[in-house]
Amino acid sequence: MSDSLARRKQWARFVPAVYSGLLAAVIAGPLLGPGYLLLRDAVSTPRSYLTDSALGLGDAAPRAVPQDAMLAALSPIVDGGLIVKTILLVALWAAGYGAAMLARELLRVSVGPQLVAVTVALWNPYVAERLLQGHWSLLTGYAALPWTALAAYRIRRAGGSDAMAGRGAVGSWGALAGCFAAAGLTPTGALLAGSTAVVLVGRRNVLGALVLLSAASGPWLAAALSGAGTEPSDPAGIAAFAARAEPALGTLGALAGLGGIWNADAVPGSRTTPLALIATALLLALVAIGIRSTAAIKTVAIRGRADDIESDTAATDSAPPDVTEIGATHAACAGDTDRAAVRVRRGLLVLAAFAVVLPALGATSWGMSGMEWLVAHVPGAGLLRDTQKYVALAMPAYALCAAAGCRAVAARFAAKASVGSRTPGMAVAATGFIALLVLPLFDLAWGVGGALKPVHYPVGWQRVAERIDGPGDVAVLPGGMFRRFPYSGKVAVLDPAPRMLPRDVLQTGELPVHGRTVAGEGARAREVQSALLHGDSAQRLGELGVGWVLVERTTPGPVGESKTTLAQLDEVYADSQLALYRVPDSADHFKESQSTHRAIAYAAHILWAALVVGGLLLAAVLRQR
Question: Is the model's pTM score more than 0.85?
Answer without folding.
Answer: yes
